[in-house]
Amino acid sequence: MAPTLRNQYQTATSSAELAQFRAAAWQFYQPVAPVAVAAFGRTHQLRPGLTFTPFANAVRCNAHCAFCSEELLRHEGHQLTAKRLINDYPAYFQRLRQVLLPFRGFPLGLSLSGLEATAEPVWLRELLACLTGLEGEGVVFNEKVLYTNGSGLATQPDLGLALEDFGLSRLELSRCHDDEAVNQQIMRFNRNQPIRHNAVYAATVGWLHRHLSVKNSCILTRLGIATLPDVERYLRWAAGLGVRQVVFRELSRLEGSYLPNVFTEWIEQNRVPIEPLLTAVAPTLEATRPGWEYAGSTFGYYYYNEHYRWQELEVIFETSSYPALQAANATGVLQKLILHSDGTLSGDWDPDSRVLSRVPKPSLDYYYPSA
């Protein structure tokens, strides 16, 4: 696996080194030298490899995942951008051009996430067209990833063709359990969403594989996938759908960084720590579980991954820390760029934090319906 600007990849050569990787996790990441970029009347320090996210919330999300990060509130009390919908598409895309053109020539990763980008196909198609035009003007996306629950791809397959034409690098498709009833308890799709049914999900995945690189993403929870036998059963199911890459993610470690609410309580009650799973798969490099082969480890600025081969699949276990993410942000080096739905460009999921540029006050009217 080739290293990228976004993380650092190493292969442990001894059990002692692997133990060191696990103990240090994201702390093993060595920040690269930032790059100074002039934009919006100031010089900003950017981490090479940082990603840009046009926060997807043209409509309310069509699932209500019990672990949704957009329902978490920081102690500072700032509201996250998910509560504000994009109501005027032409004005939004004009703003998108304004915030990206200053970064022409600086390679960015494109991370299509937020709420559910495929829930509003018109917005997504216009977004892809706008971003394609910006690439023609010198904006560089050296990786393009869509994080999705797949709902819009199930009802409008031509969205997959549009993503293929756009040159999407990878589609990360969320599914938290191989049993549709258990998955529904965790992801809580609106009842009118066909993707909640396994038969629809399987057909959607099968079609997508003919056009895009698809990675399954499974959040580990006590309610869902929690043990290594659970993991292996999920992998057999995913392999039967043609999936060749699966990531199992521990719920992000909050460590008191957010105000208590029903979502933080659910997260902490249902957290499945990654360490026992890693120990079960590979207590040492010399004694991995039969059928499993260690391939390497990835260190990011707030996450740690271990990569394995299981049968014909690449399997990744991931753990991450919100306090580590916030600590990296606090250094003054921009770790990512997010265009919020009120037109604010910031370096944080909070639109009031690490602001680079805001829309002049009178122009905000187009984001809200008339009273």
Automatic annotation (TrEMBL):
Alphabetized InterPro entries for the sequence: Aldolase_TIM, rSAM_sf
Superkingdom of the source species: Bacteria
Name the record gives this protein: Radical SAM protein
